Amino acid sequence: MIAGPRHLGNDIDVYLTPLIEDLKQLWEEGVDVWDANVQQTFRLRTMVFCTINDFPAYGNLSGYSVKGHHACPISFNGSQENEGPPEALTGNQVHDRIKDIVTVFGKSQKKTSSPNNMWKKRSIFFDLPYWSDLYVWKTKDGLKCRQDLVDMGIREQLHPISQGRQTYLPPACHALSTAEKKSFCQCLQNVKVPQGYSSNIKSLVALNDLKLVGLKSHDCHVLMQQLLPVAIRGILPDKVRVAITRLCFLFNAICSKVINPHQLDDLENEAAIVICQLEMYFPPSFFDIMVHLIVHLVREIRLCDPVFLRWMYSIERYMKVLKGYTKNQYRPEASIVERYVAEEAIEFCSQYMETVEAVGVPKIRHDRTRGGQGTRGFNVVTMSRQDVSQAHLYILNNTQEVVPYIQTHKQYLTSIKPKLNMMKLLQEHNRTFMNWFKETIMTDDNASKTLRLLAIGPNLNVPTWQGYDINNYSFYTKSQDDKSSVQNSGVIVEAHSEHFSRASDNNPIEASMPYFGVIEEIWELDYNQFRVPVFKCKWVNGNTGVHKDEMGFTLVDLNKVGYKEEPFIMAEQARQVFYIQDPNNRRLSVVLQGRPIGVREQIHDASLDICETPRFCTKMPSICEQAEVDDVHAIRHDHAEGLWENIAP
Fold it and tell me: Under a CB-based contact definition with an 8 Å cutoff, are residues 54 and 132 in contact?
C-alpha cells in the first residue's frame, strides 16, 4: 500500500500511482465481469481516453516542474538559436524516442534526474495539454518589479524614487488613472447583453471599489474576446490599447467555431508578434509561463481541432450536478452513486411513458417550432389599414413564391408607362402591386392556396408580442428590454436592394447592405390559415449613422433614424446584435454580434459579417519601435497617479 500525500494538489502524481497500476492491469489483462442478461462472464478492458486539466495541473499530473526558466515543455533551452524551428514530430516519432525511457513517478524524480534527461522526458506530456487561466490579467507592478528594471538597466523613467520611508513608483504606460478606471467600470456597468450570451455583467462590477468581482471562467472569456476591446476605448495610450485589443482579436479568432486551416500560420505569427508588443509596455515580471503559452495556442488547434470542442464549461456544469447529489457529507461517493442510480432507473421507466419528458435533460424552447413562437406580452390590437398594408407589401416582396409575379408586374408597368425611369418604376410598383397581385391570383385557377390567402391579405386584428423566439434567438421589443436585465431588441438584416445615386438614375447598383435597428413592435400577420411574424423596427440611417473606425469596429448613432417608410422585416430574416455605448464618444454605440442559442442548421452570411475580427494589419504599430517605447512611452505623461511603497524599518 502506497501512502498518498497529505495534500493532493501538488503531488497528485504520487497519489495516482496505484491508479496507473490498476489501469495497466485493466487494459493489458482485463477482468472477468458477470453479464446478468446472458448469464455468463466476459472479459472487460478499460482505458483512460483523455484528461482535461489546465497547465499547472498538467505539471502536477506529470510530475515535472512547470515553473522557472524551463517551464515550457516545448520551448528552447535558453541558448541562442540561429537556425529555423525544427519540424514537429509525429506521434510515431515521439514514441520511438521515448519508448525505452523508464519513468519513476514521485518526488524522487525531480531530485535525481539530470537536466538533460528531464528535457527528454518532458516531451512525453506536451502533445495534448489543456490551456486555461489565460484571462487573469495582473500587471504585477510593484517595488520588486521596478527593482528588476534597475538591475536590467532599462526604462529609467520607471525606476523607484526614495522619499524618506516611502518609495514612489512613477505611473507606467499601462497604469490607469482614477478617471480611466471609472470610465472602464462604468462602461461594463452599463452593458446589457442578449439572453444566454453571458452572466449579468453589471453584477460583476464593484463601482465603489473600481474593480471586477466574482468572475467565473466563462465571464473571463466573454470579457477577453468581446467586451474588453470596447471598454478600453478612449483610455490608455494608443499603442498600449492597440496591443491589448490586438490580443483580444487573437483570442476571438482562435476561439471561433469555424477556423480556416490556411489561416493558422498567420494566427501563429500574430500570437508571437502580440507577445512581443506586450513586452514593450508591461514589466518583465508579467511574462510568466501562463502568458508565454499564448504562442502555443494555435499549435494546440492543429493537434486538437478548434478550442470550443474542448471547453471545460460542460464538464464543470456536470460536476455541479454530481456535487448536488451529495447529501451525506461523510459518504459523498455513496450519495452520488445512489442518486445517480435512482435517476437512471426513473429515466429508464420514463421511456415507456409517452407524455413524460426526459429527466434532467433541459428542453430548448427554440426546438418547439421552426416558424418561431411568441414568449411574452401577448395581445391582439386592431391596426390601421395603412400599417397592415405596409407590412403586407414587405411580405409579398420577400416571399419566394411571389417573386415571379413581381417581375411580371414590373414588365407590365414598363409596357404601359415606358417613360418611367427606374426609381419611378419602383415607386409605382410598390403603390399598385397589391391590387394587381390580388386581381391576377383571383383569376388564376392554377394558383396555390398560399398565393390565394396572400392575395386576400391579412386581418386588421393583429396578434402582438413583447418577446419572440426565432432563428435560435430570443427577441424582445425595446419597451420589454427597458424592463429586463438583458438586451434582446437589437437587430440586423442583410438586405439586397437597388441603390440610386439620384432620382433620374436609370442604372442603379444592386448591393447587399446591413441595416441596424431596434425592434419596437412584434406582429403576427394573420392570413386565416397561417401567420407570418414581422418586426417593426426603428432603423439607423445607413448613410449618416453607421461607420467603421480604424480598428474595424462598427459604430452606429441610434439617434439618426432613417427608412421610416420601411419599418418592417420578416422575423425569419432577423439576426441579433447588441449595442454598447462607446466610451470614446457617448453619442455612438459599438455593435457586437449576438450569440444564437443551440445549433443552427444553416449559417447565414449576416451572422459572419457583422462582428468579423478586424484584419491584423489594420493600424497596428510596428514591432521595430521597441527602442522608442523604452525611452519615451514607458511612463504616463498625462497623469501622475503612481504607486507608493512603504520601506520596511
Answer: yes
Contact 561, 537 (CB under 8 A): no
For the CA atoms of 250, 254, 256, 262, the dihedral, rounded to the nearest 10 degrees, stands at 110
Which residue did the predictor score with more confidence, 632 or 398?
398
User: What value does the mean pLDDT take over residues 605-626?
Assistant: 39
The domain spans of the chain are 12-122, 143-311+634-646, 314-350, 373-543+559-575
Exposure of 249 in the CB half-sphere (CA atoms within 13 A): 25
CA distances, 373 to each of 397, 471, 522 (Å): 23, 10, 11
Residue 252 DSSP SS3: helix
Segment 141-145 mean pLDDT? 86
d(CA 495, CA 513) in angstroms, rounded, equals: 6
Beta strands in 573-642 (DSSP E): 575-581, 589-593
Residue 26 has pLDDT above 50, yes or no: yes
DSSP state of 157: G
Distance CA 327, CA 336 (A): 8
Which residue in 531, 409, 407 sits closest to 465, CA to CA?
531
Question: Which pLDDT score is estimated for 648?
Answer: 54
As a whole number of angstroms, the distance between CA 276 and CA 626 comes to 9
- Burial of residue 637, with CB atoms counted within 10 A of its CB: 0-12 exposed, 13-18 middle, 19 or more buried: exposed
Q: What is the pLDDT of residue 499?
A: 61
State how far the Cα of 517 lies from the Cα of 562, in Å rounded to an integer.
10
Can you read off the three cell numbers belonging to residue 361?
435533460
Q: How far is CA 136 from CA 224, 515, 632, in A?
A: 10, 37, 28
pLDDT of residue 503: 58
Residue 282: name the closest of 180, 174, 176 by CA. Answer: 174
Helix (H) or strand (E) holding 301: helix 297-304
d(C-alpha 315, C-alpha 336), whole Å: 16
486's grid cell: 438583458
Please tell me the total number of residues recorded for the chain in this structure.
649
Are the CB atoms for 184 and 176 separated by under 8 Å? yes
Measured CA to CA, the distance from residue 159 to residue 550 in angstroms comes to 35
What pLDDT is attached to residue 42? Answer: 93
Residue 560 DSSP class: S
Report pLDDT digits (tens) over 214-231.
888 788 888 888 899 999
Find the DSSP H helices in 351-421. Answer: 385-397, 403-416
Q: Is 494:512 a contact under the CB 8 Å cutoff?
A: yes
Phi first, then psi, for residue 578 (nearest 5°) are: -140, 155
Q: Which three three-digit cell numbers place residue 253?
A: 479568432
**Residues in contact with 379: Cβ distance below 8 Å, sequence separation at least 6, in sequence order:** 463, 464, 465
With contact defined as beta carbons under 8 Å apart, do 584 and 615 qualify? no
pLDDT tens sequence across 150-174: 998 888 899 999 888 889 999 988 8
| Look-up of cell digits 432507473 | 345
Rg of the chain's alpha carbons, rounded to an integer? 32
Short-list 472, 451, 481, 452, CA closest to 558? 481
pLDDT confidence of residue 316: 78
